[in-house]
Amino acid sequence: xxxxxxxxxxxxxxxxxxxxxxxxxxxxxxxxxxxxxxxxxxxxxxxxxxxxxxxxxxxxxxxxxxxxxxxxxxxxxxxxxxxxxxxxxxxxxxxxxxxxxxxxxxxxxxxxxxxxxxxxxxxxxxxxxxxxxxxxxxxxxxxxxxxxxxxxxxxxxxxxxxxxxxxxxxxxxxxxxxxxxxxxxxxxxxxxxxxxxxxxxxxxxxxxxxxxxxxxxxxxxxxxxxxxxxxxxxxxxxxxxxxxxxxxxxxxxxxxxxxxxxxxxxxxxxxxxxxxxxxxxxxxxxxxxxxxxxxxxxxxxxxxxxxxxxxxxxxxxxxxxxxxxxxxxxxxxxxxxxxxxxxxxxxxxxxxxxxxxxxxxxx
Length: 363
Known about the structure:
Helix content: 25-40%
CATH topology of the largest domain: D-Maltodextrin-Binding Protein, domain 2
Shape: globular
Mean pLDDT: 91
Structural class: alpha/beta
Distance between the termini: 21 Å
Low-confidence stretches: 1-25
Oligomer: single chain
Order of helices and strands: HHEHEHEHEEEEHEHHEHEHEEHHHEH
CATH architecture of the largest domain: 3-Layer(aba) Sandwich
Largest sheet: 11 strands, mixed
Strand content: 15-25%
CATH class of the largest domain: Alpha Beta
């Protein structure tokens, strides 16, 4: 998720994308990353391994088993708030071997040619993974990421302040919650997608120009009701903690994090429809330790690591993890829990969404 930037900086970034794309990855290798041999894969990883991801993907709970199994690895972890931010930092010289890739926001990484195709023969559980056949997992026939987590987006509300609940975006935007409502604002797609569903549009991620204009105007018209456009999960949690916000759009995993901290919240699927995201890990075009990178990808896809993801509120992608998942998380962790939801994908005309979102944020 990205932090708020000045409009002029955002315009400059959008304008710079074609130039960066023409420059490619600045000397990076975009050939398929060679997988280690079977004998090499059985050995613990060694050397320095740099991981760049969302903060809730790289918790100590998630990574400690990998560290213990690979004591010879110097694992360096850095976090970002969006793939756009990650791509800009990588273009600026930041070094990483493995980067988290989300299918709805991977375009900046692809434009800069910052991902190496993955040899799926080097991923032990590849043929078992859910979502591996999603179209955007492959680009020009090459696999760019290993899908490792997913989750639904809906509505989060404070059960003490709103005991009757909030089951629709229409109600969320009602006068009842003026000044006490938040709309996730880390990218252009989420807030405009919420507006689209509130307006009754069927495909919030590929609106035509007229629908996009209506969605933009809807957010501008309701701007005074919106307390904040939080740029990260932690920002959203803090808004509920302080009582500034009692209802917002958000992920089920975020609601579970709040519940773990003792906040009285519930997550619901809005009547207008639920969308779902898919994220995973990829190997960067400037990766220096691809053997260790494959080791890490295999760890995250393993039943043991997937069970940890399930306990943290994510939908798993490896069904072999199901016997390891506590009963209370089995339903929410199952890929079947997001069947029928709208896939969160990057719009074909992402630049139009970005321009519309800039108008909303600057309004």
